[in-house]
């Protein structure tokens, strides 16, 4: 079929559509006046967001000044909410509660040193990580349950916490669990594997759980997970942490500030207890 024939057919189609849409000859088309009961048509000034916010609905930014009265009041209210959480109260009232201790990781780091920290420095503040984590840890350092509040300033998609932020929080918790079982109480991340199971919404408390899986000299294998307060699984993780041969060069005081000091004489996992640890993941080779 020639190009000229295609053009003529297209021209005839346009003419037929124009004839159908045009008013009869001599007739005028005037808009009918709006009914008194009908709402006015929307304009750029009258359009607004839906009353029920969706995941993608834009929200105002978090407070920028962490020292303002508004921010301090917000943080205090959030701390009170944390202490009143049913999940935390239940752990404190369990039959084996005396086998666990509580600590607030990062809380003892001096303000002057936090400028170079991520989760306790750059990401700390109202609307982000407003509170220091609250960790309940077994005295044998085999398990930990950590409560964290995630603000809306930590999102990738609006309303959904960035997956990289969750990886950083998991690494903090699993690393703490690992190094307290290593000979020199110091170590570094070698591998960290994650499986994201569900989106993590912002503006909520989450629970990060960790468990020592296996201990081999300078190596510690740890498993972890992120859950909502009602137990919904959000992220699964497992990691390998190793004590470097240059441990003596590490700042042990800095490490103690990061992890939150355990009791003066915690019962650490001994040689005879390693085989009793319940493996929840297959440790990487």
From TrEMBL:
Biased composition (Basic residues): 1-11
Bias (Polar residues) ranges: 12-21
Domain annotation Thioesterase: ranges: 159-233
One of the Pfam families matching this protein, by short name: 4HBT
Compositional bias segments (type: Low complexity): 44-57
Domain of life according to the entry: Eukaryota
Biased composition (Pro residues): 31-43
Region of interest: Disordered: 1-69, 261-285
Range of residues in the leader sequence: none
Protein's name in the database: 4HBT domain-containing protein
């Amino acid at each position: 079929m020639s190009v000229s024939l295609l053009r003529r057919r297209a021209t005839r189609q346009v003419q037929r559509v124009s004839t159908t849409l045009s008013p009869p000859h001599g007739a005028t088309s005037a808009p009918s006046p709006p009914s008194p009961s009908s709402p006015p048509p929307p304009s750029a000034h009258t359009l607004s967001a839906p009353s029920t916010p969706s995941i993608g609905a834009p929200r105002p930014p978090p407070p920028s000044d962490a020292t303002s009265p508004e921010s301090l009041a917000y943080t205090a209210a959030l701390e009170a909410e944390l202490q009143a959480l049913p999940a935390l109260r239940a752990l404190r009232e369990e039959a084996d509660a005396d086998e666990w201790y509580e600590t607030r990781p990062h809380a003892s780091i001096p303000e002057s040193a936090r400028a170079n920290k991520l989760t306790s420095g750059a990401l700390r503040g109202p609307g982000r990580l407003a509170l220091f984590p609250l960790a309940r840890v077994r005295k044998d350092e085999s398990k930990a349950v950590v409560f964290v509040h995630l603000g809306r300033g930590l999102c990738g998609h609006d309303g959904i916490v960035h997956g990289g932020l969750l990886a950083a929080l998991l690494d903090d918790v699993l690393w703490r669990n690992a190094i307290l079982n290593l000979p020199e109480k110091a170590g570094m991340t070698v591998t960290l594997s994650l499986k994201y199971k569900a989106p993590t919404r912002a503006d909520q408390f989450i629970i990060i759980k960790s468990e020592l899986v296996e201990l081999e000299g300078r190596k510690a294998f740890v498993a972890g997970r992120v859950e909502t307060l009602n137990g919904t699984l959000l992220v699964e993780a497992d990691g390998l942490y190793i004590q470097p041969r240059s441990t003596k060069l590490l700042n042990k005081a800095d490490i103690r500030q990061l992890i939150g000091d355990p009791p003066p004489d915690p019962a650490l996992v001994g040689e005879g207890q390693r085989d009793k640890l319940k493996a929840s993941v297959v440790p990487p080779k």
